[in-house]
Amino acid sequence: QSIEWRRENDIDQILSWDPTPEYRYEYPYHIGTTRDNGLFVILLPGRVDVKAASQTAESSEYFQKYLNMILAEITLALKDRKDSGGIPVTQVVLIADFEGFSYTSMLSVAVFRLIKIFASTFDANEPERLKIGYIINASRVFSLMLSLLKPVLAQKTLSKLTAVSSNRNTCKELLLEIISEEELPILYGGTERNSLVNRFLN
């Protein structure tokens, strides 16, 4: 199934595709190194305008391709990576920021469809890539959405997801346990200034 998915979505060539700078700015993400030389990725489904990305078939297809590119970048970043003990790193720590995710967003058929596609695609084709997933700034809306996603996600994947308190200090302390200040974007309490996710700083 994974091989067929890679062929149908041209995953092996997708890293040669270059989204516009404007699109990268509107839909930022961040890939970095954990304290033990592992890998982490920050996605912001609550802060970015997923609804705008799903308004038309063309925009939805572009966004799906963008998400596939992120998956390909994660795979590339894991290649030949070893942790501080010399053990190969094969999994990624996911940090999903749901700040601002509303009932309006969740009730949008197009928005939910995109999130469902990404979640099910990752689960079906990169099932062992997820080490643990921290859901930060989660609200009741996320809990409801997660219940709707349960039918398409494996129990093993669901068991790796942990909702973190929306308290800024609690979240910062947790993230700094696994990520150094230099690697963690300013938005989340670190000192990394160059990440595009920092555009959401107040």
Automatic annotation (TrEMBL):
InterPro entries: CRAL-TRIO_dom, SEC14/CRAL-TRIO_domain. One of its GO terms (cellular component) is cytoplasm. Residues 31-196 form the CRAL-TRIO domain. This is CRAL-TRIO domain-containing protein. It comes from Allacma fusca.
